[in-house]
Amino acid sequence: MSTDETPQPWQDQILPILKKFDVKHIAYVPDAGHSAAINQAEADPDITAVTLTTEEEGIGYLAGAWLGGQRGAMLLQSSGVGNCINTLALAERARFPLLMLVTMRGDWAEFNGWQNPMGQATEPALNLMGVRTWRADKPEDVEPLVRGAAGMAFNGDASCAVLLGQRLIGEKKWVK
């Protein structure tokens, strides 16, 4: 990159990183924090973007992609991590690569109290289920953490998650 180029916004860095790791499947539950990556994945003819009805479906879907010789990643919100707890055992027992990018709720400046319990429990719950986690709170954190987590997941058949903090995403506002 030349010195006169503006850095790419962090939201636009995610899909290109995943594509460098030959990710062909993006499983997601719709989420504003992931909207750039979701829109890019849906528009990309080399990516199969799958809308999930519930997050734990994504783990099974990505296991199937792996068994078929392809790589995938899941985009979800921290509240959805709670839905995945039992299903995370599949990745641990089968030792397939699982890469999750998790937008955080119940975090800094949360307006919805219902998001707080799972938001605060997300990282410890993932760690207890054998998922390695890293947290991005600044735009410059995103590229190296996503790249590093993808490398660990796909090169080491590991379960990895990058937590995208609310300070990174921006404060959500209650709109009546």
Automatic annotation (TrEMBL):
The keyword Lyase applies. Residues 12-105 form the Thiamine pyrophosphate enzyme N-terminal TPP-binding domain. The keyword Phosphoprotein does not apply. This is Phosphonopyruvate decarboxylase. One of its GO terms (molecular function) is carboxy-lyase activity. Pfam families: TPP_enzyme_N. The lineage of its organism: Bacteria, Pseudomonadati, Pseudomonadota, Alphaproteobacteria, Rhodospirillales. InterPro entries: THDP-binding (IPR029061), Thiamin_PyroP_enz_TPP-bd_dom (IPR012001), TPP_dependent_decarboxylase (IPR051818). Keywords: Decarboxylase, Lyase, Pyruvate.
